[in-house]
Design a protein that fits this description.
By secondary structure, this protein is α/β, with parallel strands linked by helices. The protein has helices at 23-30, 47-60, 80-86, 99-106, 110-120, 131-134, 180-189, 271-274; strands spanning 8-12, 36-40, 65-69, 89-94, 125-129, 139-143, 157-160, 168-171, 194-198, 202-206, 211-216, 220-224, 230-231, 246-247, 250-254, 259-261, 266-268. It has one domain: 3-Layer(aba) Sandwich (Rossmann fold), CATH 3.40.50.880. The strands form 4 sheets. It has a 9-stranded mixed beta sheet with strand order 3-2-4-5-1-10-11-16-17, sandwiched between helices.
Length: 284
């Protein structure tokens, strides 16, 4: 009996196409490793344009076999044509757009069941940018007013995601769109989950369900509410205008090369920073 092999997730905060070095997309292309890379444009309103843009980029990065999965209505996700598009893939890449389109069109379809198998059993890679990043978790953020993020009534909307990564909720375009307030609101609702905010042109590379490392130009922010002592989200008084209160939250900020242990909920110090040189001995 063949042994199941856990794959890899590459979760991108958006804006990766702005990087002339294509560092993050090079990493996605590298995991194709001579196999098929499928670009899934379910989330976007411009599937053809998005496909052509990523097709050109991945071809330039050396990917020989590229496939486009374009699902506009849920019925299409049930067809043999759609299933054949993803079967045999080494990498499945979700573009940006509206994450609710991904879950509503693909959720529990044969296409999604194959993607789950690719990741959980076949050792393949599932990547996603922007909306394609948010959809990776069990619970995903779908909306939230960044300008009014301090007000409980304007915090966020949430919905079930694809559930490829557990016990976290992911937000993207994080620093660029000022989304700290809504991610705080997400972990206030359920402190069991870690809040992970990813800047543009930045990715978390999840090797397993235990740890991730940071790749790219920006930062990844990890909010840990497991030791929080107070939240006023459940208070009923003046709910519409109430300002959020949340005590004793940990915040970790990680940059490229840093790692984070998801099980222990702690960052790992980069190896170079751990090296402490012995002081030079003075000679007489």
């Amino acid at each position: 009996m063949a042994q199941k092999k856990q794959g890899r997730l590459i979760i991108i905060g958006g804006g990766e196409k702005k990087d002339p070095e294509r560092k993050i997309l090079k990493e996605v292309a590298r995991h194709a490793d001579g196999g098929k890379l499928v670009v899934v444009t379910v989330a976007t309103e411009e599937p053809h344009e998005s496909w052509e843009e990523y097709r050109q980029i991945f071809q330039e990065l050396g990917v020989k076999e590229l496939e486009h999965l374009d699902v506009r209505v849920r019925e299409q996700a049930k067809t043999e044509e759609a299933l054949q598009a993803v079967e045999g893939a080494s990498v499945v890449f979700f573009t940006g757009g509206d994450q609710l389109k991904i879950t509503s069109q693909l959720g529990d379809s044969k296409v999604y069941q194959w993607i789950e198998k690719l990741y959980h059993e076949e050792g393949g890679t599932v990547a996603g940018t922007s909306a394609g990043a948010s959809v990776m978790s069990e619970t995903m953020l779908t909306s939230g007013d960044s300008n009014g993020s301090h007000q409980v009534s304007k915090l966020l909307g949430m919905a079930p995601g694809l559930g490829l990564i557990h016990d976290v909720v992911v937000d993207q375009h994080f620093a660029e769109r000022g989304r700290l307030g809504r991610l705080l609101g997400a972990i206030a609702q359920n402190p069991r989950q870690l809040g992970i905010g990813i800047d543009e042109n930045t990715a978390m590379i999840l090797h397993d369900q235990e740890s991730f490392e940071v790749l790219g130009a920006g930062a990844i922010y990890v909010l840990d509410g497991s030791d929080s002592s107070y939240s006023n989200l459940a208070d009923e008084k003046d709910e519409q205008e109430k300002t959020m209160a949340l005590f004793n939250i940990k915040l970790h900020v990680l940059s490229e090369g840093n790692r984070f242990d998801l099980r222990e909920r702690r960052p790992e110090i980069p190896p170079k920073a751990e090296e402490i040189r012995e002081p030079e001995k003075k000679t007489a």
